[in-house]
Design brief:
The structure holds two protein chains of two kinds. Chain A is an alpha/beta fold. Chain A has two domains: about 190 residues, 3-Layer(aba) Sandwich (Rossmann fold); about 170 residues, Rossmann fold. In chain A, strands 6, 7, 8, 9, 10, 11, 12, 13 and 14 form a nine-stranded mixed beta sheet that branches. In chain A, helix 2 packs across helix 11, helix 3 runs parallel beside helix 4 and helix 11 crosses helix 12. Chain B is mainly α. Chain B has a single domain, classed as ABC transporter involved in vitamin B12 uptake, BtuC. Chain B has twelve helices and two strands. Chain B is globular. The chains are: A alpha/beta, B mainly alpha. At the A-B interface, helix 2, helix 7 and helix 8 of A face helix 1, helix 5, helix 8 and helix 11 of B.
Chain lengths: ~400, ~290
């Protein structure tokens, strides 16, 4: 009896030790939720490659700890598929941290799961300003729509001397956010927004002709457009030129979503003169970015170009690496969030940090103009605002309170 | 707002609908085959154009012609190997088969060319604005209106005024009778199918400027093809034409004045039209 009891105890103790040992050797599981198929497939490719390039250029960033990426397809922008994927990653795959999230609805739909399951999430794109308010488990390395929208509203008055503006936007949360951000800054500086036109959703590229026709008939000084980057942006450039809005004296401005770097050359001369505010473009002149773009072209072809989503994937991986090393591979949720708060990094887009108060990114906003140089289109830097916070939360606007 | 430019814009968007859908009206209406892979042929046509222009330096119009013949020929292979086995099958079988085919096409294009949108560089004479005398308007919209009008006239003449058209109509109305009169219905359907697919390819190419072109094209626009064909009435080329114009113009005008409505108008219009006329605007009753 006695022997067998001791034996049992010993067995229990041994198995505990075994569990503890596996916990120590455990790799950190990162759930990656991106639209690998469907209308956002190119975005997923940009982010995914950005993550790969980070791992390649910084093989020691994770220290002695192993990281396993578990990728899931969030397909269309509705948020429903992303939520299902997040649920599966948390319950089945038992991931330690989540990342990805291209579309705002994806992050919005998943936010309550982050809170309930206490899983930190590093947002790599989704730009609706108030997303970070939805869960204390969210940190964002990408941007808020207010970063570019607010900067562009101010620059439209100060740099472009515009007095009137029409806003056209894709009718979903980040689009409405962009409208609010631009309007707030434009009107605070003495301009007037004379019309705001919702232009279909993010799921498919609409024919922009009727919306642009309406904008043209209002004869504004600037036409501020937010649409999802990529194919929407290409269609915007085409329609703007085909309707002769440039000749009518209407300047097209917007966040850098309008000038996805990997589509810029394909836009041709249509894009020359376009002015955007954004936190990254592939032509940024700094050493880190040069190395980033160089590696990208070496790995994915001379015609491939990283855009802002790529750099967000890169920075997101950097943030996760920082958290993994800070937590010594044991990703306790509160500790991980504390490690992310205040994190600073020298990114290809310039210096960035996570604001400890809002868990949102602080970074530079670059004002650029598309110009033709030696047969190529490049984004010429015409101004920079340093260390920009999300103005929506700074000003406590609407849902950002 | 300028009514002439609104009307022209609406006509152009109607023409896009017509050009991409008319091929489906041929296969689905005339042959009674539920061909949901129509958009797949349109997409493949668009890719033929893009690749031919990029790699062989073809200009836009010859590339369109090439796409027509290439896709028509490709579709004959599919028709003989696959489609012809399902002519007498139930509609559900046809739907499942053609949807499966769409997935195969989408995956094949993604694998072979990549997920990104392809841009068809229009020739200079189709770009920018054209001065019409009383107003200037987007050149490509005007070109679409001309192309669509020519297409409907050609198809109408072909089906209503030629022997071949008469045979096809006879075979559609009563297959057994047509066969016993010595018409080779099998071959006729092969030709009609090739024509429908070739038209899809041309539609994919001409419409790409407005609708874009990527591997998800076939499913994204499937609803539009079906709407236009359903509202126009099955098998009626002229019906499809007027339905496309009607929907295009109304959708365009409503989008200008009530942009908040988004894509809802096109569906609401379809609902109302089909409630009022279940067989389509120009469809035959009781067939």
């Amino acid at each position: 009896m006695r022997i067998s009891k001791a034996f049992k105890l010993g067995l229990v103790a041994a198995s505990f030790a075994a569990v503890a040992a596996t916990a120590q050797a455990q790799t950190v599981k990162v759930g990656v939720v991106l639209p690998y198929s469907g209308v956002g497939a190119e975005f997923a490719q940009q982010v995914d490659r950005g993550m790969q390039v980070f791992m390649k250029l910084n093989p020691n960033a994770f220290g002695p700890y192993k990281v396993e990426l578990i990728k899931r397809d969030s397909k269309n922008p509705s948020g429903a598929e992303a939520k299902t994927a997040v649920q599966e990653l948390i319950t089945q795959e038992k991931v330690d941290i989540l990342t990805g999230f291209i579309y705002s609805p994806d992050a919005i739909a998943s936010a309550s799961l982050f809170t309930e399951a206490k899983k930190p999430a590093v947002i790599m794109n989704a730009g609706t300003a108030w997303i970070t308010n939805l869960s204390p488990m969210i940190a964002r390395v990408s941007f808020s729509m207010w970063h570019a929208g607010h900067a562009m509203g101010e620059a439209s008055v100060k740099n472009l001397k515009a007095k009137t503006a029409v806003v056209g936007y894709s009718d979903f949360p980040p689009g409405r956010d962009s409208l609010d951000a631009f309007k707030r800054a434009f009107e605070a500086n003495g301009g007037k927004v004379i019309d705001a036109i919702p232009m279909g959703g993010p799921g498919q590229v609409p024919d922009f002709t009727p919306f642009f026709q309406r904008a043209k008939d209002r004869k504004p000084d600037v036409f501020f457009v937010f649409v999802p980057s990529g194919d929407h942006a290409v269609a915007v450039m085409k329609t703007y030129n085909a309707l002769g809005m440039r000749q009518a004296g209407i300047k097209l401005v917007g966040p850098g979503d309008l000038t996805p770097d990997y589509k810029l050359q394909g836009m041709g001369d249509d894009a020359v003169g376009l002015i955007t505010a954004h936190h990254y473009n592939a032509d940024l002149d700094n050493a880190h970015n040069k190395r980033f773009v160089e590696t990208w072209k070496k790995d994915y072809g001379a015609n491939a170009t990283p855009d802002f989503m790529a750099v967000q994937g890169y920075d997101g991986m950097a943030a996760i690496a920082h958290a993994v090393v800070a937590m010594k591979g044991r990703m306790d949720p509160e500790g991980t969030m504390n490690a992310l708060k205040g994190w600073k990094f020298d990114s290809p887009r310039g210096p960035i940090s996570i604001d400890p108060a809002t868990r949102d990114i602080v970074m530079n906003e670059y004002l650029s103009e598309v110009v033709k140089q030696g047969g190529r289109l490049v984004q010429k830097n015409i101004g920079v605002i340093t260390a920009v916070k999300d103005m929506c939360k700074e000003l406590k606007e609407g849902k950002c309170k | 707002m300028d009514p002439a430019s609104i009307l022209l814009g609406g006509f152009a968007s109607g023409m896009v609908l017509f050009i991409v859908s008319v091929g489906l009206s041929v296969t689905m209406g005339l042959m009674g085959f539920v061909n949901l892979a129509h958009g797949g042929f349109a997409m493949l046509g668009g890719y033929v154009i893009v690749l031919a222009m990029k790699h062989w330096g073809l200009s836009f119009v010859p590339a369109l012609a090439l796409a027509f013949f290439a896709i028509a020929a490709f579709s004959v292979v599919l028709e003989r190997l696959l489609y012809s086995r399902l002519y007498r099958a139930q509609e559900l079988d046809q739907v499942l088969f053609t949807i499966g085919l769409v997935f195969v096409m989408t995956a094949a294009v993604t694998l072979g060319v990549g997920p990104e949108t392809q841009v068809i560089r229009l020739p200079d004479w189709l770009r920018g604005q054209t001065d019409l005398g009383f107003m200037t308007y987007r050149t490509y919209s005007l070109a679409l209106i001309v192309a669509g009008t020519l297409l409907v006239i050609a198809l109408w003449l072909g089906f209503e005024r030629t022997r071949y058209g008469a045979r096809i109509r006879a075979a559609v109305d009563n297959r057994r009778m047509a066969q016993s009169l010595g018409i080779d219905v099998g071959r006729l359907f092969t030709v009609a199918f090739a024509l429908g697919s070739g038209l899809a390819a041309v539609g994919g190419g001409l419409g790409a400027e407005i609708l874009g072109l990527d591997p998800n094209y076939p499913l994204r626009y499937l609803v539009y093809f079906l709407i236009v064909v359903a509202v126009g009435g099955l098998g009626k080329v002229t019906g499809v034409f007027f339905a496309a114009i009607l929907i295009g113009v109304l959708d365009f005008v409503l989008k200008i004045y009530f942009p908040k409505g988004g894509t809802i108008f096109i569906y609401a219009l379809t609902l109302i039209l089909l409630l009022a006329r279940p067989h389509g605007l120009f469809g035959k009753r009781g067939t």
